[in-house]
Amino acid sequence: MTTVQSPAAPVAAIRPKVVARTGLYAVLAANVAVVTYFFVQAGFASNALIVLGRLAGLYGALLMAFQLVLVARLPWFDRRIGMDRLTLWHRWIGFSLLWTLLAHAVFITFGYADSSGLDPVNQLVDLAETVEGVLRAVVALVLIIVIGTVSARFARRRLAYETWHFIHLYTYIAVVLAFSHQVAVGTTFVASPVATGYWWTLWTVALGSVFVGRLVLPLWRNWRHQLRVSAVVPENDNVVSVYVTGRDLDRLPARAGQFFLWRFLTRGRWWQANPWSLSAAPDGRSLRLTAKAVGDGSAGLRHLKVGTRVFAEGPYGAFTTMHRTRPDAVLIAGGVGITPMRALLEELHGHAVLIYRVTTDQDAVLYDELRELAHAKGAELYLVTGPAEPDRLSKAELARLVPDIAERDVYLCGPPGMTRGVLRSLRELGVAKAQIHHERFSLAG
């Protein structure tokens, strides 16, 4: 194959992902310190259980605010960390929040019961009836327990995304109820004007982030760009590409490797949001998504009519060339995971090797485009076919196809089983973690 090398892209000295992650950790640690300081400044109750309960409640409030920032889909963090990892952090912090708030309720109830001589159940009832805001806090805790239960892995797998998402929206009710409880009876909230200002600022930033990232920014971008379907092109019997055009698309900050949450505004589809990657690098004139028919949402794409209005949230994802660490790259795709790789290959500089894993030649979506693009870019393209067995992309096979793989960035996208197998092979080949880029294109972990 004749190769024409593109100039290598400059590699950042400090990884954007490290900067963003360190920034989030630093902000959380600083706020923990501030909350602890205000707690100590407010003074201690005579009962140790009440002291522990109040401290757990304050940390729970802080975690709840941090949770909102993680799911606000703020572009700066999303481009550097990725929605999948932010969602994973949100999940684990959510379980920490649940246990923290349970500890708050248990310690407070038993602490006051110890002082009053009532049993814990009657003490909780007495607090709910006599202390302003406690009943609202109990309702908030019940909502968070329900949400935590349906978010557990065993339950999440049994729920449709729309059902899970609807239940999860009650989190915002729980947040409002918990905040009103804090305002009503929070000792440290009213300990000083500085403490009061701090908590109001914290909650304003957290709720404001959600309002801007989840509502204002998507509405603004869709009003500005006026997206519509311009063409629907079947790629084979169960894969279809949809072309979308609009106004001023050169000002839409989308990059190859990212995805949108697509809503096609027809009678039966407007409420469905599906995460589909761009299958071509954005050129400022149109966007293209390519999807396999695996459910009602994707199967109905081929029936879309030209001119259909589109509401797209995004772009989202850190699966981009922003995170390059080496001049050359390897792209490993499985099945319809080729779609973001097709776009990345178009944008990548430096020498690239694309390994495309499918069951049969007929499953190789966009293969003609890939061959033409690889030839134009001077890239190497390998089509690996056969049954879905782990050894098809084993350590030995990857080393044979790309002998210098440990010196390259590796972009990986495919079915979970293939992804796990390839990640294991990459570790055995000595590919540094910082050089491996993979992302789940999904709405929830």
From TrEMBL:
It comes from Streptomyces spinoverrucosus. GO terms for cellular component: membrane. Gene3D superfamilies: Nucleotide-binding domain of ferredoxin-NADP reductase (FNR) module, Translation factors. It comes from the Bacteria. The keyword NADP does not apply. This is Oxidoreductase. One of its GO terms (molecular function) is oxidoreductase activity. Keywords: 2Fe-2S, FAD, Flavoprotein, Iron, Iron-sulfur, Membrane, Metal-binding, Oxidoreductase, Transmembrane, Transmembrane helix. InterPro entries: FAD-bd_FR_type, Fe3_Rdtase_TM_dom, FNR_nucleotide-bd, MRET, OxRdtase_FAD/NAD-bd, Riboflavin_synthase-like_b-brl. The chain crosses the membrane at residues 24-44, 50-71, 92-113, 133-155, 167-191, 197-217.
